[in-house]
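Dear support,

I submitted the protein below through the web form. The confirmation email said the job was done, but the results page showed an empty box. After a refresh the structure appeared. I'm attaching both so you can tell me whether what I see now is the final result or a partial one.
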Amino acid sequence: MQISGWPNGLAVDYVERKLYWGDAKEDKIEMSHLDGTHRLTLLADDNLPHIFGFALLGDYVYWTDWQRRSIERVNKIKGGEREVIIDQLPDLMGLKAVNVFDVSGWNLCSDRYGGCSHLCLPIPQGYRCACPTGQELLADNR
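What the results page shows now:
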């Protein structure tokens, strides 16, 4: 598979075994199977000035645009449904998307925040409690 232009964004859908990328030179978002076959263009638009940050979440591909200073999305399966989430954000660059309802794994902070009153920070030796700025831990360090 040959990718021309400036592939600025890349996202892998491990469940569906698909690869998604944004091309800032060609002004388009494409996808293929992980082996490079079945390549499709999801979005090709003159109004797609400069893709930079790129992420995949749920049924959508999200990206940041340097020139529009926006976060936008498009349906990852059928394209279309392009939506501007927010625009006119200064110094917008990278983008990460996380499904907070699909969390896996466990650590000592997973169970009632480790008994901490505000913040539980996992560390190699277990965990450490912390407080927001302007507050202090009590004598019990929780």
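Response: this is the final, complete result; the empty box was a page-load delay. The radius of gyration is 20 Å.
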